[in-house]
Amino acid sequence: MSDILTSLGLGETDFYAEIIKENLDDRILVFNDDVSDCVIENYILYILKWNREDKDLPVEKRKPITIYINSPGGDAISGFNMVNVILASATPIKGIVFGMAASMGYHIFLACHERYAFKDSILLQHDGQIRISNSTSKAKDTMKFFENMEDRTKAYVLSRTNMDEEFYDAHYDQEYYMYANEEAKRLGCVDYIIGEDCNLDDIL
């Protein structure tokens, strides 16, 4: 159990493990890390576990899952695997940004069924980063794949926000930082600002 708890965050103390365990009992996942294969695997398994427990319950009777997010982003392939699981989850999933949801962390946050953030939470949208070292023909194949991924990412963002295609294209190659209660709320990336649209008690 201690290895699993440590993998769900960066803490190593008994107190930290106790807090994580308590949160898991309440269906709260603390996503305070880079997006990678090993991290994503743990979160996906819990989301699947709780959906399995709720399988015969109507949606309105299911206990929601909450994901606390503070992530600089990371691997897109692993990240969109988690996005797909969140979108497919019949059990409602709430995302709450503490600090920052950047890059792939931002896309994971967008997938949540209800999205909360503090007013000074930061969201970051930008294009991906790749390195290619291969033969010319294989490099072309790789670029074709990532161009397809970029198109799919664009379609996903447009489906989960109020952004139109013109706005997205104009900001595509920027480091587009958004404060939660300014651009992010206006663009439909955040549903509720904690302390403005709802109280902290409402989400705990």
Protein described:
The chain is α/β, with parallel strands linked by helices and 204 residues long. Helices cover 49% and strands 18% of the residues. It contains nine helices and seven strands, in the order ααβαβαβαββααβαβα. The protein has helices at residues 2-7, 14-25, 37-53, 76-88, 104-111, 136-160, 165-171, 180-186, 200-203, and strands at 28-31, 65-71, 93-102, 114-118, 122-125, 176-179, 192-194. Strands 1, 2, 3, 4, 5, 6 and 7 form a seven-stranded mixed β-sheet that branches. Strand 3, helix 5 (104-111) and strand 4 form a beta-alpha-beta unit. Helix 3 (37-53) runs parallel beside helix 4 (76-88) and helix 4 (76-88) packs parallel to helix 5 (104-111). The radius of gyration is 18 Å and the shape is globular. The two termini are 25 Å apart. The mean pLDDT is 88.
